[in-house]
Amino acid sequence: MNQADTAWMLISTALVLLMTPALAFFYGGLVRSKNALNTMMMSFISLGFVGVLWALIGYSLALTPGSNWIGDMSFAFLNGVGLAETGAIVPLTFPHMLYMAFQGTFCIITAALISGAIVERMRFSAYVIFISLWSIVVYAPVAHWVWGGGWLADMGAWDFAGGTVVHVNAAAAALVAAIVVGKRREYGSQSVLPHSVPFSLLGAGLLWFGWFGFNAGSALVAGPIASLAFVTTMLAPAATLVVWTFLDLMRSGKPTAVGAATAIVVGLVAVTPAAGFISPINAIFLGAIAAVPSYFALIIRAKTSLDDSLDVVAAHGVGGTVGALLTGVFAEKSINGLFDGAIAGNPGQVLIQGTAVLAAFVYSAGASFILLKLIGLVMPLRATVEEEGTGLDITSHGEEAYLHVGGATATRHGSF
After folding, report:
1. Are 5 and 364 within 8 A, CB to CB?
2. Rounded Cα–Cα distance for residues 332 and 345 (Å)
3. Residue 388 is inside which H or E element, if any?
4. Cα–Cα distance between 237 and 260 in angstroms, integer?
């Protein structure tokens, strides 16, 4: 047991947990005011339902030896998950229970990411059921494949902190959910503008702050690799922000705040699979390269009938894929000697990385489609026309984000 490692992992777990409220602000600012609370609740609710399910069975299915495809139930209901450093699937120098909690924060935010594609029209109850089932049926197996000794780990796929497990996985589910639930009533016929860009900037800043725990915490020790991941997590989004700003200037002549917030997230997503495997200079290159495909994916999507409301696919799907592939290009054994055979520009490793991305995407998309269709047999997936028109804050939660003085639906909660 190492006290420094324990302290670092306590901090990292808290930082990653903060990312889910940060995501709520990032997403919440990008929707209309009548749906702000509902959108934020879609992130916050994951802290409860997904967090509890992770402790009960998700952790055991994801991170026990089991088979090549899924873990066993040896840690179900936290059986054998105690304060000793022994028992986990990886060697630890801090309590096993803390490792479970750290990994749980990843599952929580991955499920919450999906909401960005279906905000402003999916029924809240159906969404809660979906992400709860998804965390067990989809997230746990994919995490096992990569981090639990499953078949992708055996193949040699690298994913330092979740490019495939978190971002590609969530983006595939988001894409399917956006298609199955359908587009917003107003989509394509009128502008649907963000109600609070400062909210989104705040969320992006807090996401960046929390991401240091996400990536540097994935080293699982307070040592050189954590320091490397910390620095690459600082530099890659910075480079993405620079390139994104120039792209905005060339396209419209104005650098946008929404663009800046999105660029930060894209850079963070892209460096996630590579954070502990690449040099700081290569992190700058990776972040700069990642800006281009995500930027144009976002522009192209806006011209289609796909209502991926907050561009989960462009930011997390494209960004995560580019980051995973570039991990095979930029990873160097001299940087991180914990993995074998890594050389810069290894074509074979790029192919392995691509296989992992494709496998996660196909499985997540297929399983998500089945889950949504099954839930749809029991209850409606989307709100009614009247509920969408009124706003999901009032119709789903009986609350409003802002008091509209003199408005027909004005309410006052608590004292002011």
Report:
1. no
2. 9
3. helix 385-390
4. 10
Q: Which residues have C-beta within 8 Å of that of residue 298, sequence separation ≥ 6?
A: 262, 311, 314, 315
How much helix, strand and coil, in percent to the nearest 5, is found in the chain? 70, 0, 30
In whole angstroms, give the CA distance from residue 52 to residue 249.
45
Q: How far apart are CA 208 and CA 202, in angstroms?
A: 10
User: For residue 321, which amino acid is it?
Assistant: T
Residue type, 151: W
CATH number (domain holding residue 163)? 1.10.3430.10
Between CA 364 and CA 359 the distance in angstroms is 8
Evaluate whether residue 37 is within a structural domain.
yes
Give the pLDDT of the chain (416 residues) as one tens digit per residue: 999 999 999 999 999 999 999 999 999 999 999 999 999 999 999 999 999 999 999 999 999 999 999 999 999 999 999 999 999 999 999 999 999 999 999 999 999 999 999 999 999 999 999 999 999 999 999 999 999 999 999 999 999 999 999 999 999 999 999 999 999 988 877 778 999 999 999 999 999 999 999 999 999 999 999 999 999 999 999 999 999 999 999 999 999 999 999 999 999 999 999 999 999 999 999 999 999 999 999 999 999 999 999 999 999 999 999 999 999 999 887 676 554 444 455 788 899 999 999 999 999 999 999 999 999 999 999 999 999 999 999 999 999 999 864 444 444 333 32
| Residue 188 in tokens | 């394509």
Count of domains for the chain: 1
Domain-embedded: residue 289: yes
Extract the tokens encoding 62: 């994801």
Residue 124: inside a domain, yes or no?
yes
Q: What is the pTM assigned to this prediction?
A: 0.94
Give 382's strand partners. 122
DSSP H helical segments within 150-279, as ranges?
Answer: 151-155, 169-181, 197-216, 224-252, 257-271
DSSP 218: G
The range of the structural domain enclosing residue 377 comes to 3-397
Q: Residue length, the chain?
A: 416
Is residue 405 in a domain? no
Assess contact for 100 and 181: CB atoms under 8 A. no
